Structure formats: structure tokens, C-alpha cells
Amino acid sequence: MRALLVLICVLLAHAAQAQSWAASREDNGHSIGHYARGIGLRLVCYAPSLQGRTGFEAGVHETEPTPRGTIRLEFDPDLIRLQGAAMTRRDVILWVDGTGYRLPEAGYSDFYGYWGVALGWDDPLFAAMGRARAVILAPGQDPARQIASDGLGPALAALQQGCRADWQGPAMPPGQTVTIPRQIADAVARGCNAPVPLPAGAVQAGDLDRDGTPDFVLDWGRITCPGSLPRPFCGAANCSHNIFLSSRNYTAPLDFLGTSMTIVDTGGTLGLARTGTFSLCGQNGEFCARPLVWDGTGFQERP
Questions:
Q1: Which residues contact 80 (CB under 8 A, 6 or more apart)?
Q2: pLDDT value at position 238?
Q3: Which residue spans within 183-286 are E strands per DSSP?
Q4: Residue 6, SS3 per DSSP
């Protein structure tokens, strides 16, 4: 125990400088996956897709769903050892800034290749992880292992906000059909210099300007153009996200850079949660921590 506490103190004193965590949202038409990916640990949450495609139609055969209200922690197998033929363990503790959280039974999936533990959205562990500076995995008598925490807070927040919003269906009421306006396809054709089909997950819908009509977010990171420049609106990591508002007749879209832009519920009002590299959002994501809400003239940070 003393050695573990010393390790935690050292990590607190020497916080890593590189961004190790990243958030993403992937809509395959059958389910929407929200991910916070670190080194050796992933947090995942799945919600139904508004597109309503079957798993067969979406070509999804191997996704392991998460029940509503849960987030699954997935540990790489080299962090937690198998004990003989046993595929479960009850002795895994995650230390966050010196406080230990004993996890429920962890189960190893030989098919998917990870140790999985499901926790509720509001589990105290996630609140601690959201502000973590040092995270240590201590599985029983196995060696304690450091898990990088830089960027963990913003990535976890994006996952939590996005998955809650998609489960609650903030974009459109259940059963209501969303028709993507022609202006979006035209914008993609202009950007690619050729008509390009919109792939699954490239467009999100939600009433951002609160006029009762859906607005749309176009993620250029999911568009592949023909020719020598397949991603004309992306840099090394950040991509453009165009916001088409019904109150502007879906013309003159607003543009934001980031690695993801997700429609989220900010407490009765829809807004936009953004993630990006540290050059855009800050070393710890502080410049992108608050959701953006439409105020009638532009998107402003929600206090």
C-alpha cells in the first residue's frame, strides 16, 4: 500500500503533458457509439440510432451493447491477468487521486479481448475520473499500473453528455422522420467538387435554434471526397463541422473546428459539445469544456 501511495504522489507531481484521451461518436445507423479512448482503458456507451437500421442492414454483427444508463470500462488484457481458467475477477481496484474504488465483478471476453465492467452513468467513480490527475489500476496481487489521465476529464464529459442525449432522443421525438435538407448535399458536392453520398454518422439532427424545426450538424471528418484530396476540410486531427440552422434556411452554415461536435441536452435546451486537440481546446480541454448554445445570433458558451 505504501508503494502504491508513493506512486500516486509521484504521478500527481509529474502530470503528463501529451493528450492521451480522445472522445468520438460513431453512428452506424443501428446504434450510436460514444467512446472515450485512453491508453489501455476505454469507456464506451451505446444508444439506439435514429436511423433505425437493423444490425444486418448496418453490417453490425460484433458490437456488444451497453444497457441504458450504463457506461462500460474496457481494460486491455495485459493490465489485468487471467487467473487460471477463471474469466471473472472481484479484486480490481481503481485508485483515483489517492481514493480507491473497488469495481464490481470484471468479466473477461475472449471474443472481444478485454476485461469489461459496467457502471451506472452517475457512479461516483466517474465524478472522480472527471477531475483526475492520477489514475492507478490495482488488480489484486498483480502489479499496479498507471493509466494516463491527461485529457480524461473532457473525453469522459463528452461521452456522458452525448450518450445521455442520444438515449433521451433529444434530436427528434421517437418515430418522427428526419429529412436531411438538400442544402447539405449541395454543400458537400461543392466542397468535394462532385456529388458524394452522405455516410452514416456524417449528419446529426436537433432543434438547436429552438424554432421547432430540426437543425443539422455536418461532420466533414466522415466525408471522403473523390480525387487527390479526400478530406479537404480536415487537418492532422481537427475537422470542420458545419451547422445548418432552419432559422437561416439551412444556408450560410456556421463552422467549428474539432475532433467531434455532438448535439447534447444542456438542461432542457440543446447545445453542442466540442472536443479537439490540445492546440484547439487547451492542454486539459479547458477551452472546450462548456457546451455551446444558440442565443439568436451565434453560439455562445453556456455559463
A1: 89, 92, 106, 108, 115, 137, 139, 142
A2: 86
A3: 203-206, 215-219, 239-244, 254-258, 260-265, 270-275
A4: helix
| Cβ atoms of residues 218 and 253 within 8 Å | yes
Three-state secondary-structure class, residue 127: helix
CA distance 118 to 241: 32
User: pLDDT value at position 8?
Assistant: 45
- Taking the C-alpha atoms of residue 254 and residue 270, their distance in angstroms, rounded to an integer, is 16
Q: Alpha-carbon distance 191 to 233, whole Å?
A: 8
- 6-37 confidence digits (pLDDT tens): 444 544 444 444 458 999 988 887 788 999 99
Q: Which residues, in sequence order, are bridge partners of residue 45? A: 34
Q: State mean pLDDT over 283-302.
A: 86
- Whole-angstrom Cα distance, residue 250 to residue 262? 18
User: Does the global pTM surpass 0.85?
Assistant: no
Per-residue pLDDT at 199 exceeds 80:
no
Determine the 3-state secondary structure of 164 from DSSP.
helix
Q: Residue 295: how many CB atoms within 10 A of its CB?
A: 10
> Which residues touch 142 (CB under 8 Å, ≥6 apart)?
80, 81
DSSP-derived letter for residue 296 is S
Q: Cell digits for 160?
A: 456522458
Residue 291 carries which DSSP code? P
What's the start-to-end Cα distance of the chain, in Å? 41
- Tell me the pLDDT tens digit for each residue of 30-57: 788 999 999 999 999 998 776 667 677 7
How many other CB atoms are found less than 10 A from the CB of residue 272?
24
Q: Which residues of 104-141 are buried (b: 16+ CB within 10 A; e: fewer)?
A: eebebeeeeebbbbbbeeebebbebbeebbbbbbbbee
Mean of the per-residue pLDDT values of the chain: 84
Residue closest to 221 by CA, chosen among 204, 244, 245: 204
Of 158, 263, 174, 160, give the one whose Cα is nearest residue 215. 263
What is d(CA 272, CA 299) in angstroms, rounded to the nearest whole number?
9
